[in-house]
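Q: Give me a backbone?
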Amino acid sequence: MNILISGIHGFIGSNFIGALKDKHTLYGLDIVFPAKDGVVNTFSWRDIEPTSFPFQALPQFDAIIHLAGKAHDTKNQSVAQSYFDINTGLTQKIFDFFLESSAKKFIFFSSVKAAADSVVGNVLTEDVIPTPVGPYGESKIKAEEYIKEHFMFPTASIDEDQSLRLGKDKGRTAMNKQVYILRPCMIHGPGNKGNLNLLYNVVKKGIPWPLGDFDNRRSFTSIDNLCYVIEGLLNQDVPTGIYHMGDDEALSTNELIGIMCEAMGKKPHIWKMNKGLMEGCAGLGTLLHLPLNTERLRKLTENYVVSNAKIKAALGIDKMPVTAKEGLMKTIRSFEETK
C-alpha cells in the first residue's frame, strides 16, 4: 500500500514509519525534507495544490494520514489565527487532494479537545455535542466540519428526518472511499512525554505532590496502541466515522506518580493536603496572580476519561495490546535511559 503521511518527520510520524515501513511504501508531506530510512520521498505542500495538477506527477496513493498541525500551546502564547491557518487550512487542502486522488482511505488526526475541554459526566464518547474551548480545539473542530461538509458521514441519529438528511447531504461526496476522524487524548511514548513533562520534573526532583486528596482520573494514549489502531484502520474494512482514542485504563494522578516513581526507582512522595485548604489557596492565588490559581487547580485535578469502546468494536478487539501502565513505564524509562 502506498501511504502519504503529512507531518511525517514529527514524533508521531516517526513512530508510524517504524510501524509501517516493512509492509507499506511510505511518502511524506512536510515543511522539512530530511532523508529518512523507510520514507521514499517527502513532498512539499505546494506539490498537492490544484496548480500542481494533474496528479500523475505524484505516486498513486492508496491512503493518506494527516498528522500535520499546530500543537496545543499550554502556555497560551500562540496567536489564535495561526491555529486556524494550520489546523483548519492544511486539513482543507489535503482533504481536497484526497477527494480528487486515487486514495481510498483518509485518516485525520483531530483531538479530544475538539469535542470538549472538560468532560461532563463519567466518560467522553463520540456522541457528545462538541464544545471546544480556545483556538486549538476550535480549529480542530472546524477542520472536522469541513471534512463532514464534503464527505458523507453516518448520521448520528437513526431518528433523523429523511428530508433533512437529504438536505444535509447535498454537495457531499459519496464514493468508494473511507474517512476516519481520530480524536486521541494525550499521546506519549519514548522520546516524547507530551504534557507529562511538568509532573515528570516534579517527581524526578523528589518534590512532594500536595494534591493527593483529589481522586481524579485521566486517559492517556500510548504510541504503541496508536500505531496498532492505525494499522487496523489501514488493513481492515472499518466504517467511516469519528473515533476517540485512548488506552483501556484511566489513571489517577496518584497512580501516575506511582508509575513514574516505579520507572525511576524512587519512592513516591504524595501529600494528602485537605481539599478545602488547597481550593482556598488556589482562590487566593487567583486574586494575587500566583502560579497556583483556581483554573490551574481545576486542570490538575479534573477528570478526563475518554472511551475507546467504539474503535475497539470497529477493529473487533476486546482490549488494546498495551496497558496504560506498560505504555507509561516505557515512556518514562526511555527518559531515564537518555538523561
